[in-house]
Amino acid sequence: MTPVLEARDLTRDYHIPGSFFKKARTVHAVKGVSFAVEQGKTLAIVGESGCGKSTLARIVTMIDPATSGDMLIDGQKVDIARETLTSDMRRKVQIVFQNPYGTLNPRKKIGDILTEPLIINTKIGADERRDRAMAMLKKVGLEEKHYGRYPHMFSGGQRQRVAIARALMLNPRLLVLDEPVSALDLSVQAQVLNLLADLQDEFQLTYVFISHDLSVVRYIADDVMVMYYGEAVEYGSREEVFSNPQHSYTKTLFAATPRADVESIKARLARKNAA
Ligand SMILES: Nc1ncnc2c1ncn2[C@@H]1O[C@H](COP(=O)(O)OP(=O)(O)OP(=O)(O)O)[C@@H](O)[C@H]1O
Questions:
Q1: In-domain check, residue 250
Q2: Which of 109, 148, 165, 172 could bridge across to 140 with cysteines, CB 3.0–4.6 Å?
Q3: How many structural domains is the chain composed of?
Q4: What's 225's domain CATH number?
Q5: Given a cut of 50, is residue 247 above it in pLDDT?
Q6: Measured from the CA of 210, which atom of ligand 1 is nearest?
Q7: Which residue range(s) make up the domain with 236?
Q8: Taking the model in full, what pTM does it have?
């Protein structure tokens, strides 16, 4: 089966210009990273601050260019330099950030936030746009009455539901989730993770899930990639990586991580695996 996303040897260098006091230098944020994610699966990318997770997320979402390497969506090559990138290709990948409040326009009503991608990218009429937004609100566990409300009228978990709904409005092939639950309380984290798992089941969505939290990754990932100073030091199935970590950094990372209370997620996944 052709993977939804394939990355081959992706690199990203940042050139930091010099000054009177400092020499110019190059930061190798991502160094030759390769991976593939099949439809309906979740790849978790784990690592501590500064390891290159967000840079990789921005490359995969086509927000930032890569310096070299190849990226394919459904077997089709992406212009990673972003010189001839089409909007059709760009809309195949959507992103949800850690802090939805920072990405939801506070002056716009939820209905406008959800219909905006349709206005920009499609010729769908106003009634149909409204219907689709209403349907999506329900899919993410919100209600029709929320359509006319503003982001500040929602809790953090609800705002993240809105961000997920917006990301899904254009039927993307891939969702990049950049620390999507890190800013939420534990119980709300579990609800949002359960929602993501339900949506994945229903729409056969493919996820790249960026996280520093191994207890979350343990329960949502099919495959895990551990990054360290821009390199993928570990890559394999969740079972392989968790039961038999190879790299000394992964071993240290696992040893240092407390187990969070994600029992409801665990139970849900057990049900999913049994089905
Ligand atoms: N625009 C930029 N210009 C220069 N250096 C950058 C830029 N963006 C990231 N970097 C550097 O690239 C490296 C990787 O950063 P990145 O933000 O991808 O890491 P991260 O793992 O996502 O960290 P965090 O979880 O703190 O966001 C870091 O050394 C960072 O300082």
A1: yes
A2: 165
A3: 1
A4: 3.40.50.300
A5: yes
A6: 22
A7: 5-92+172-274
A8: 0.90
ipTM of this model? 0.94
CB 27 near ligand 1, within 6 Å:
yes
pLDDT per position as a tens digit, 87-119: 889 999 999 998 877 789 999 999 999 999 999
167 lines ligand 1 (CB under 6 A): no
Cβ of 24 closer than 6 Å to ligand 1, yes or no, is no
Q: Which atom of ligand 1 is nearest to the CA of 48?
A: 21
Angle at 95 between CA 235 and CA 251, to 5 degrees: 25
